[in-house]
């Protein structure tokens, strides 16, 4: 199995966590970094890491390599670039997106089984001239998909959280929930849980938008007008329950009774998730024809190049990518 690691923003911790992950992961899969050989070699030297790199010109070159050996192949995608650790750089943003484009293309062509993306910086890719809000939007575009959504997963607590709205101001959440509803999210969750995690007929919880689930309409009415009717409709085909008041839901660990949770907005879902899985959380992108995961953290410019970045989430993202790729392969073989 071939797993591609995109280098992320080279001025952040991406190269460091990639190298540290390679040192700890068991040799069985073939890992390939898509990015810059010179940059990775710089981090190997500066951090004194016992990793041997090999520059390759195309993915076919790995066929002659032994995955059990401690050699990490690097597929160069861009021109030489100067490091400015901890700072926003247009050239770093361009390299990050070029790596993502190459990895996505290779996965679509079935030359690789999955991709794991190291963190990028939104301002850097904007300075590089990309109009996408992040790598997920760009990957979705490259895949020709109409819809994608992130599912935050933790293998230890088994918690899986999806957000009905993501990076939008809180002032716009109510209108978006009313406008878009939850049906598309629930369908995507059910499909991903079945295809990627072998959870047939999953049990899904929906969190309320308002405190105390609005107390019967006393504190807002989104529950009565939008969530409850849609949940009732969805229950004809899916095991969906709610809306639950989020404080009590997480406070009593009710999530343990469900396969996944749909939160209404960013902080409602991610604060409790990161309290439970700050270093082990993984972002799995639903709705794509390829397998893509990423660590649940950012570029961490403040500690770039210091050798103190934790690779835990990147390792988890890699292990989950492998599990999902195997699950999809098994389903494809059974369907033949």
From TrEMBL:
InterPro entries noted in UniProt: PdxA_fam (IPR005255)
Gene3D superfamilies given in the database record: Isopropylmalate Dehydrogenase
EC number: 1.1.1.262
Highest taxon of the lineage: Bacteria
Molecular functions per Gene Ontology: 4-hydroxythreonine-4-phosphate dehydrogenase activity; metal ion binding; NAD binding
Keyword line: Metal-binding, NAD, Oxidoreductase
Record-linked Pfam families: PdxA
Name of this chain's protein: 4-hydroxythreonine-4-phosphate dehydrogenase
